[in-house]
Each structure stands twice: as C-alpha cells, then as structure tokens.
Specification:
single chain, alpha+beta, FAD/NAD(P)-binding domain, 2 domains, 3-stranded antiparallel β-sheet
Length: 238
C-alpha cells in the first residue's frame, strides 16, 4: 500500500513469512556455540580418506579429523567433495543475483514478480531484489545483462522505484545446489556406512534446512524417520 504497483493482479499468501538473514544467522551461531558446537571457519575440506566402507579421515587446509559420523552438507560444492570418495552426485551450482537497496522503497510486502522471474523482499534496513538461475560453474562472475534484468524487472512492477548505478554495482551473487530432478539429497550412502548426505535443496534451503536437520538427526540416531525419504536417496539415478 505504500508503493505504486503496475500489475493486473496478485495472490496474497497469508501463510507466508519473510526474515532478514543477517539477523538470524548470528543468533543461530551463538546458540550453537552455547550448546557446545565447535565451528571451524576459513577451513577448506581438501580430501576424504576412506577404508572399507567407512570414511576414516577428513583432510582440511588446517588439520585432519576423524569422526564416527560424517555429514556431507557442502552446498554447491557437495558434488566435488563426493568425487573424492568415488561417488557420482549430480549437482550444479545455480547462480543467483541480488541487489540490496538500503533506502526507503515503500515496499512492505514480499513479492514474486512472475513475468520478471524475480523476488522482492523487504528486510530490516533494506529491500532485496533477487533472481535468475544461471548454470555456469561454481564462480562469482557477474554478468551485467542478468543484473540489469533484475533492475529493469523491478521497475516494470514498481514504476516509482529506481535502482541506481551504485546499487547495481554492489550486486551480490550466490550459488544454490541444484540436482537434476530438483529434489535434495538426504540420507545414507549405500557405499559408506558412516556418511549421510544433506544437500541439493536448490532455492528452498532456508525453509527446508530445519526439516533436513531433523531427518539427519533421526538417521544418525537410528530412529524411525519422520517421513519416507526414498525419493531423496543420494544413490538415485537419472
């Protein structure tokens, strides 16, 4: 109601919600640390060593680790890591772009702009305009035409909102892990007895993360899983 909208109509999903990730993440990190979780940062996984049917050691850029259970949840890099233990996990990073506008836009309700194929999210202190699904490898190369498609797409729906050159220049990119059938990989590998996969959530990681965490904890604790996860098998073929 606070911004001019050029659209024939819309559907209001009252059950939906939105959040500001930069507020949530520090809080969840603090909670995990208080619960005894040790978080290692700026530490790249270089290799996995396996023996028999178990992952024996994880080699990183700083040290080596041994563990009773290993969870592979490396987002768009999960397929590359899986290759180190001779597993074929079809996965590609789908690049998205986002522009943050840190000034009043009048936009107070999130929107999916169907024709422009983009999302608009009002956050605390800024409005985020985001979109595209680009398959060009795991990189952060910025394609100007895709950035301009977002800026122009926003203008088509919100004629009074102009994304300026400085805001366009500050565009960010990110990779979503995408499987061939669009479903995540959740579950044990039949090849490695102590390896569980939790990756491939594409554009739904923010909402599916808690459910995946619950399933993974049930798998590792050898409890009955809350739902049938056969469709998410990391061993499935395409």
């Amino acid at each position: 109601p606070e911004v001019a909208i050029d659209a024939k109509g819309a559907i209001h999903y009252e059950c939906d919600a939105h959040s500001t990730p930069t507020q949530f993440m520090p809080k969840i990190v603090a909670y995990l640390k208080s619960a005894g979780v040790k978080i290692r940062t700026n530490e790249e996984v270089l290799d996995l060593e396996a023996k028999g049917n178990r992952i024996q050691e994880i080699k990183t850029s700083k040290t080596n680790y041994t563990a009773d259970e290993v969870i592979l949840a490396a987002g768009s890099w999960s397929g590359q890591i899986a290759k180190k233990i001779k597993m074929d996990l079809p996965l590609q990073g789908g690049k998205g772009y986002s522009i943050n506008v840190a000034r009043p836009t009048g936009i107070t309700i999130p929107a999916i702009l169907m024709e422009s194929k983009m999302a608009v999210t009002p956050m605390d202190g800024f409005t985020r305009f985001a979109g595209t699904m680009e398959f060009s490898g795991n990189n952060d190369f910025v394609r100007k035409e895709r950035v301009m498609a977002i800026a122009n797409g926003a203008k088509n729906f919100y004629p009074t909102v102009d994304i300026n050159a400085n805001e366009i220049a500050s565009v960010k990119t990110g990779l979503r892990p995408v499987s061939p059938d669009g479903l995540p990989y959740i579950g044990r590998s039949s090849k490695w007895s102590n390896l569980t996969f939790a990756t491939g959530h594409a554009m739904m990681g923010w909402s599916l993360g808690p459910a995946t965490g619950k399933l993974v904890s049930e798998i590792i604790d050898e409890r009955k899983v809350s739902m049938n996860i056969d469709a998410f098998s990391p061993d499935r073929r395409f």
